[in-house]
Specification:
By secondary structure, this protein is an alpha+beta fold. It has 16 helices and 18 strands. The model has no long low-confidence stretch (mean pLDDT 91).
Length: 600
């Protein structure tokens, strides 16, 4: 993993301060829905855990998953079931999904939704009192449960309240910089307190990574700039685990195009798929409803990769807006309908001077979700490193080459419960083992590195380097890719890595530049892995589109694995994908498909 040690300062020559040592049975890194649900499962079985996060408890990327969460309840379409949900997921993932992962999640989701309902999530209801469900792109049936257009926020609020009722401890503003692992077993983590900069050593019997994905590596992204920077996957890779499918990043079709009068932070923020799920239409600058050219049957509710590429094609052909976007319009719906079904979107745009009930909004593709991540066993959540687990967007396997809308929240609560339950069954109530000397030495070296990083006095700005890296990924590993550009991208990443050794901080560890310097190390690791895996996959499939290999290659129904070799160089290998169960295969063979025209 890229760990930034300034060349101007020898880490061994810098004194680090006294560090705090914390012992806990299970350390959960990440405070979104996946981490919270894992901790709840542990607490319900009497196992103590500590949840740590870089932000406040409840302030996580989960809140941006606004449109809904999938479960085959059959509230409106009784023919739906978990196997059809699984088939839709595999079909949308272009048959690269781990079938066990898919079936594990889709089987579990009806129970997880009923559980959230019992815990207080105020899902929308049908007139007869059932949990309401809406259409989402590429779904065969109405399967997406929702709370207006703030579903992720509502679910996270429910989980946080549940965790607090169980008195699960949480530490805010803690940035984990390294896992304590000898490549065979995880023992804990090293972290920095972002409030005052003091060092922390966490000693744990089990470690769970729930630290999100890496979509913020691209210059247009739906995350906040300081989240989804690749922390979880990079930490796992450094600890000895493998990554899977990192070449697949989902560019959501409808990110905001910021008006010059707005705060630039709005640029790329998500306009939820629920707008299209409730009948929103896409038009180019010439007023054409252009999805008729690309997907006359499913229109705006085709798969996200299809719609995103269609928008980019319109823009490249000169039919986009001056700012490189298109228009999303739901003004044909009644104002009362929009306010009831899309309250957050309505209020957001009202606050910016745009009336959704009267006019369209300008949108363009934005990096939104990373299908790739840590390779795990979906029966347990465990990585290749003993006692190291991963959940949520940090992982890979469920989504394959493209994620089915509404499945991100589903994955967090389904797998969180599984991991918590599994750890609870394997944990032996006793004191946490003392750290072996070689592992404590790893911690000491990390403390030295962090001290040197804080004292660095070079002339490179970490925030500026991050901006360059994001532009580089957008150019070389964006919606369209090709071999020479990917190779150039890797060369550029190597140059940025060398420049990162000359950063200048010379400030307080609680300052944002120190955080950016740590984030930059994670981001450089993932950038090289993404570019390498994308170059290795010589075909187009799902969200990975190669202009020099524009077709799906049946021989490439394989996953690309990433490991670290000697000298921390990225090593790539492949493995074949397993077969779905007979029941799911039957559902795939039936070829269920959304009838879009219900929305017309």
């Amino acid at each position: 993993m890229t760990t930034i040690t300034p060349v101007e300062t020898d880490a061994s020559d810098v004194e680090h301060g006294e560090y705090e040592e914390v012992t806990v049975p299970v350390l959960v890194i990440g405070a979104g829905a996946a981490g919270a649900r894992t901790a709840i499962a542990l607490a319900e079985q009497g196992i103590d855990s500590l949840v740590v996060g870089k932000r406040d408890f409840g302030d996580a990327h989960t809140v941006w998953a606004a449109g809904g969460i999938n479960a085959a309840l059959g509230s409106l379409d009784p023919d739906d079931d978990w196997a059809i949900h699984a088939a839709d997921t595999i079909d949308e993932g272009h048959y690269l999904n781990d079938p066990t992962a898919v079936e594990t999640v889709t089987r579990a989701m009806p129970d997880r939704i009923r559980e959230l309902d019992e815990w207080g999530t105020e899902f929308a209801r049908t007139p007869d009192g059932k949990i309401d469900q809406r259409y989402f792109g590429a779904q065969s049936f109405r399967r997406t449960c929702f709370v207006g257009d703030r579903t992720g926020e509502a679910i996270l609020d429910t989980l946080v309240e549940r965790a607090q009722s169980l008195e699960i401890p949480y530490r805010e503003n803690v940035m984990v910089t390294k896992l304590l692992s000898d490549g065979e077993r995880a023992y804990g983590a090293v972290a920095s307190d972002m409030d005052d900069g003091h060092e922390i050593l966490f000693r744990a019997s089990h470690v769970v990574l729930a630290a999100g994905g890496f979509s913020a590596l691209w210059s247009r992204h739906s995350s906040r700039d300081d989240e989804n920077t690749g922390d979880g996957p990079a930490l796992a890779l450094d600890a000895g685990a493998s990554l899977l499918d990192v070449e697949f990043v989902q560019f959501h079709p409808t990110g905001m195009v910021a008006d010059p009068e707005w705060d630039d932070d709005w640029n790329g923020r998500l306009v939820t798929e629920a707008v299209r799920g409730e009948g929103g239409r896409l038009y180019n600058a010439e007023g054409e409803r252009f999805m008729e050219r690309y997907s006359p049957d499913q229109m705006e509710l085709d798969a996200r990769d299809v719609v995103a590429r269609a928008i980019q094609t319109e823009v490249d052909a000169g039919r986009g807006t001056a700012d490189g976007g298109v228009y999303l319009d739901i003004s044909h719906r009644d104002r009362s309908f929009i306010r009831e079904r899309l309250p957050n979107m309505y209020e957001r745009f009202q606050s910016l001077g745009v009336d959704l009930a009267e006019e369209p909004v300008e949108v363009a593709p934005t990096a939104h979700y990373t299908m790739g991540g840590v390779d795990i066993d979906f029966a347990t959540g465990e990585t290749a490193v003993d006692r190291l687990y991963a959940v949520g967007e940090t992982t890979a396997g469920v989504h394959g080459a493209n994620r089915l809308g509404g499945n991100s929240l589903a994955e967090t609560v389904a797998l969180g419960a599984i991991v918590g339950d599994h750890v609870a069954t394997t944990y032996e109530p006793r004191e946490v083992d003392p750290l072996p000397e070689h592992v404590r030495a790893i911690a000491e070296r990390e403390f030295d590195r962090l001290a040197a990083l804080a004292a660095a006095d070079g002339d490179e700005d970490p925030d500026a380097l991050i901006a360059e890296l994001r532009a580089l990924l957008w150019e070389h590993a964006g919606i369209r890719r090709d071999g020479p550009s990917l190779a150039d991208g890797r060369t550029a990443v190597a140059a940025l890595r060398e420049r990162a050794r000359h950063i200048g901080l010379a400030g307080d560890r609680s300052d944002r530049p120190f955080e950016y310097a740590v984030d930059l190390g994670f981001m450089l690791t993932l950038a090289d892995a993404v570019l390498g895996a994308a170059a290795r996959r010589t075909e187009s499939r799902g969200a990975h589109y190669r202009t020099d290999y524009p077709d799906v290659d049946p021989d490439w129904r394989r996953n690309v694995l990433v490991t670290l070799g000697d000298g921390d160089e990225v090593r790539l290998s492949t493995r074949t994908v397993g077969a779905p169960s007979e029941r799911v295969q039957r559902a795939l063979d039936e070829g269920y498909e959304l009838d879009y025209h219900h929305l017309e």
